[in-house]
Amino acid sequence: MTNPADEVLAVRGLGVTTAGGLRLLKDVSFGVRAGERVGMIGESGSGKSLTALSIMGLLPDSARPSGSIRITRPGADRAEEMIGRPESALSRVRGRDVAMVFQEPMTALNPTMRIGRQVAESMLIHGTRPDGRAALAAAVELLDAVGIPDPARAVQAYPHQFSGGQRQRIVLALALANDPALIVCDEPTTALDVTVQARVVNLILRGVAERNAALLFVTHDLALVASACERVLVMYGGRIVESGPVNDVFSRPRHRYTRGLVDASDMRNTDARGRLATIPGTVPAAGRFPIGCVFRNRCVFATSACEETPSWTATGDESGYACFHPVDEPVAERARESA
Amino acid sequence: MTDTDARRAVAGGSASRVKRNRRQWNGSLVVGLVLVAFIVIMALVSFVWTPYDATRVDTTARLVGPSASHWLGTDRFGRDIASQLMVGSRTTLFVGIISVGLAAIIGVPLGIVAGMSGRTTGEFVMRLNDLVLAFPSLLLAIMFAAIFGGSTLVAMIAIGIGSVPSYVRLVRSGTLQVMHTEYVLAARVAGRRAIAIGLRHVLPNVTPLIIVQSSVLFAIAILGEAALSYLGLGTPAPTPSWGRMLQESQTLLFQAPLLAVFPGAAIALAVLAFNMLGDGLRDYLDPQLEDRR
Amino acid sequence: MSQPVRIARRAAIFILTLIASSVVVFGLMAALPGDPARVALGLDATPASVAALRHEFGLDQPLPIRFLEWWRSLVTLDFGQSYVTHADIGSEIADRIPVTLILVGAALIIAMIIAVPMGTVMAVRHRKLSGVVLSAASQIGVAVPTFLAGILLVALFAVGLGWLPANGWTDPDVDFIMFLKQLTLPALALGLVQGAIMARYVRSSILDVQRQDYIRTARAKGLPPSKALVRHGMRNAAIPVVTVLALQLAYLLIGAVVVERVFVIPGLGSLLIDSVSIRDLNVVQDIVMLLVAAVLLINFLVDVLYDVIDPRLRAAT
Fold first, then answer.
1. How close does chain B come to C180, measured CA to CA in Å?
2. pTM, rounded to two decimals
3. Which tens digit of pLDDT belongs to each residue from C136-195?
4. ipTM of the predicted assembly exceeds 0.90
5. Which domains occur in chain C, in start order?
6. Closest-CA residue in chain A for B11?
7. What sign results for the dihedral spanned by CA atoms A21, A23, A29, A32?
8. CA distance C65 to C82
9. Between A87, A110, A160, which is nearest C315 by CB?
């Protein structure tokens, strides 16, 4: 889909099934280039977190991935495949070429280990600093860069002495420690106060920009993606249903689900009785999405044609949608309709 | 989808379903139930029939090995082992039921009260609990035996009292959890009385914990009675008791090792049965109910 | 609340509970019907001699005085004489304490040697055959009463194979080899069963830790799963296990009572049982109090230890 030559992350045909045979992810393909900021949006149950975990090779044992995930460090002579490799190979990639920021800052750090040591550990594992002292000094700098006050003392402190926002920054420092080529963030600010969210997002963007790293930002917050990312992938039912530049997708969504999401996010979009727009129905249980188009049981425009899996309609190099009945009108006109 | 949802999705549940996990039959439960049923049936049958009178002394048939006439052999007094085992199962079950029942009747209400009351009452109950905890069951039983003489009743009461703290802690912890849920909060805001909340919200949620704990405590009670009988402080002769059978067998280990094996196996099997039942119930009632200690 | 204050508070609770339990022990014993002096002298003793003996034992004093007097004797370690055997209680207890301590200590070491590796394997391989087999074995281990384990060990190693003595006790400085031989089976009987019990705690603690987010963070850093578990998990898994260790110590102490009977070991436990059989009540009272105090002390020390290990508790209330 994208130019494969300079992709840091190349996901092709990623699928995840459970031991019981449930399909959780199907045919997910996309790429992220160095310095590019790509957002992945979807509701709970869409498969976006699973995708993030698959990229890190951190799926639980009972999940079976298929397809290909290749991570290429710019300047490296070969790519690292993350599917089907033994744990020893994956351990070398994690933390060095790709790093992750998780959703829950309160539990992400070891409560009985000083944070300086936890940050330094990342560098010592991959040998990016010669010894413990150098690693600790680098940790102090990293903590300073993410805005932890008094970093020289902070390195001796324990996680419980920090707030949620601060802990998330420490996790970010951890992720950035070895200058990874790809950073994956899975709902990094969902658990934080709104006032703190913006700061953490800015720190992430700055950290990524300084290293010209690729960023995959997984979230359910459309506004966040709109402000922080260049491109967006819309996930539903374990598939990518639409993708493209952020502005295009949000102002002129083609897939009916994306349209529903955008409408629902628009606070001014109320009907004659003042109710906000919603997508009818609820997200089906994991792995139990309809055959064919995964959205068809909630889509008012669905027809019998939708019992077949819609193929991808490309609207550009890196954009497209998978829908038999895409939206033709832009968003602005829809607001004038009454329910 | 959060990561936990992802994990749960992989594990087979739905991310959107909150409480109510499927009740799943499992191996532990089946084996436990079968074994317990076996023991119960043995005890019930013993009321109606045993191969021989368990207390009947037969000097002509001392230390007979397993044979057609005496399926498991006889002891030094010629008493039939199989019959003793069967009648002994009555004692085992009886002690379990009474001591666990006693502990539950005292401990569960105390635990609920401790969980629902204010700070001071809760603290007071817990301190009282700690006091009882200072006396391990066996020690209590030994003390009681010294004062009142050894008997099954003494054993039951002592083990029962010793098991109370276990219930109090468990029920209190479960109650506290329920009290902090939003629907209880809503009920309290709506002005529901404490008793109503207790019966309607706390009890149903705490009941699975109680059931599982009871099974485990039953197993502990069996061990306790056996130990006491072994020490001569439990069920007195001539009433058959597995523990005392073991004690009597010890001097004859050389001549008749089987005399120790049969009652020993019976005790171990009974304890195993209730432990497995407890584990199985725990998995059945709520697979996410992890070890609460 | 700072650490010294927390420790002081726990110490206060410890002492209060100690006093309260002594009241319970004393109350139960004193409420006993019957007259120890008459029991000691026999049925045909004259009322005068009974009264004299009662006076000698201090039994004619009011209860609170007797209680305080008892406390005084405990604290000054002057336990007095047994009503029945007239032996000096203090020296008897002093002789027997080391024996019980050695037994319990050896059993604890055996239990830990078994529990930690076994529990770890059970946790790390809990879905594979080795884990399941060990889990089953630990289930059986938990179901076996200590005295049964003792008897079976005797049947196998002493009677059957003749490798080790079936009972008895020798002081280590009299004959060290014999001492070791006689210690082996009883320590094994106590330790094996406790080991099985503790292994299950170790397993559940490690399984708990394995699911924690910080282990996942460690793996995301590039640590292989085993190293992630060891470096980040062990200290966290150890915390609940240490607290359980304390409880187990208390159970070991009580289990020793039974084991001493099985193997005829002259420890505190067998003195207790013997005294119960001959209704030697003030000895029973003293030993029970000693054991209760030991249990409470262990719990108190573990609370303090827990406080020290877990940094989260240091700053929190």
1. 22
2. 0.76
3. 888 888 888 888 999 888 888 888 788 888 888 888 888 888 888 889 999 999 999 989
4. no
5. 3-75 (no CATH), 94-277 (1.10.3720.10)
6. A62
7. negative
8. 19
9. A160
